[in-house]
Amino acid sequence: MDLGLAGKTALVSAASRGLGRACALSLAREGVDVTIVARRPGPLEETAGDIRAETGVRVTAVAADITDAEGRAKALAACPEPDILVTNTGGPPHVSDFRRLGRDDWIALFDAYLVAPISLIQATVDGMIERRFGRIVNITSIVVKMPGGSLELSAGPRAGFTGFVAGLARQVVRHNVTINNLLPGSLDTDRVRENMEVRARQAGCTIDEMYTRRAAEAPAGRIADPQEFGDTCAFLSGVQAGYITGQNLLLDGGRFPGTF
Questions:
Q1: Strand pairing category for 33-38 and 9-13
Q2: Of 28, 37, 22, 20, nearest in space to 3 by CA
Q3: pTM score, two decimals?
């Protein structure tokens, strides 16, 4: 399927690895020029080179921390008027007990999962409205629907952000600007592997045994390839998806046990 995106531009945050990288690559395969943002220059430049080599599109790499205002300004200077915005932030810290967190810790969580994506949307949505095309895809988490484990630290700010998106998405869709959230379950990313290593040590088992346990949690019986996630992001960014907005799409292999 031709998604009608050739020649468009995208700004993708936290894109040096994992789900952000997968989204950037899928968009580039559709002919989208991508600006990718991440904190570490080395992995970021490696990813930019890989995407350029495979797709031939223009790839701009911006080493910046998207969770602070200076980092966002740097990213937006490189790509001030994206047609597609993919917001993403790394997972929460490994904290076994919320009682250990102080006020500064909580503020950092809200900065990352609420303030940062809203600020990027604020800076780009009006241009999308003027151009009569815009796609905003937010990478959030299954914890929005199914809090649990250490990931519940991000559930509060992510839930607040989800509420914000629900209202805004219905205001801007008449201008052919859509806003949707992608909620990953278990995908085979570096972040998930790091989490599994921690859990394996705590459980006294091997990482392979922990993978098997995690795969069994999903009715699909497997952990997904990140590129499946990236391709879903690309579809939501395409011209065919102009009637899809304000949705929270789970990519969890059926793990969430609900009807809605």
A1: parallel
A2: 28
A3: 0.93
